[in-house]
What we know:
heterodimer; A: 88 residues; alpha+beta; SH3 type barrels; 6-stranded antiparallel β-sheet; 3 helices; 27% helix; B: 247 residues; alpha/beta; 9 helices; 7 strands; globular
Amino acid sequence: MKQNADLYMKHDQFIPLSFLPTGKKARVRALMSKGISRRRMLDLGLILDTEVEALQKSPFGDPVAYLVRGAVIALRSEEASDILVEAM
Amino acid sequence: MGLTKQSTGSSVLGFKPHIERQHPGQKIIALAGNPNVGKSTVFNSLTGMRQHTGNWPGKTVSIAQGSFFHKGVHFLLVDIPGTYSLMANSVEEGVARDFICFGDPDAVIVVTDATCLERNLNLVLQVLEVTGNVVVCVNLIDDARRRKIRIDLEELSRLLGVTVAGTSARSGKGLDRLMDEVWTVTHEKPGCCRGSPLKIRYHEAVESAVGLMEPSLEAALNKKLCARWTALRLLEGDENLLESIRN
C-alpha cells in the first residue's frame, strides 16, 4: 500500500549514527533502544531533530566522539547503531 | 552520618534516606548536578576539611557530607552523586532522586556547566518539578568566558523562576554570593511551591490526568511531597514510588 511504501522509503534515508562518517552532521530521526539505554540517550539530549556531528574516532574505531547540543559525548558503536539519523 | 532504623532496612528501593540535623537550626543542602561540572570543587571549597564520606545504606554509592557556617547559620552540605537526570535509571540516579525527594533537604543547589548549559538544564528542570527551594549554580563561568560564551544569568533566573548564581569554583569566585542566595532560600521556605519556579506543561491529556489526581494526592501526602510531581511520576508508571509513599 502506498502509505507503507512511503514509510519504508523514508526509513531508507535514515542510517544508524554509527555509519555517519567523521566530520558529517545529521539529525536524529528515531531511537531504536528501549528502557534505560533509551532514557540515557534522551538525557544526553539526543531527541528527535537534534543535530549531531561525528567528530572523531578513537584509535580502535570505537567509541566515537559526537557533538550534541554543545557537548562532546562518546558513544560506543553498539549505542550509536540504535540511533537512526538523517544526514544533512 | 545519622540514620534512622527504617532507612537502613533491607529493601534497596523504597526506603527513606534521612540525614539527621546535628541540631535544629542546621540547614541541610543537597548539592546536585551533572557529572564533571565542578560539583566536587564547589563542595570542597565550601566545606574545606570539615567533611567525611559515607555510603548510602545498601548501595555502593559514596556520599560526602560537610558542614560550615555562613552568615551565622550552620549548613550541612550533602554531595549527592552526579547524574544527568532524576529518573532513577541507575543506582546513582536513584540515590540522588531519593535524597532530593524524600530526604527533605532545606534547599538544593544544582551545579551546572556554563560551557554546556543546555544539557545541564535537563536536571535543573527535573529538580524544579520536585521543589522550588533551588539555587542554580552556573559554574565554570571563567572557562565559558574564555570560549567567548556569555551567560545571561538574570534572564536565566527570570525564565527558571529561581535564583541563579555564577561561579568559578576553581578560583573561589562567586561562592559567597552562592551561599548568600542559599541562605535566603532556606530562610523563606513555605514548601515545595516557593516562589514561581518554572513548571513544564505537558500535553493536554497528561495535564488533565494530573488535574484529576492532584486533589486526592494532596490530601494523602499532606504536604510531604509535591502533589504534581507525584502525579506525573505515577503516570509514568513508577511503581517504586508508590511503594515508597505507602511506607
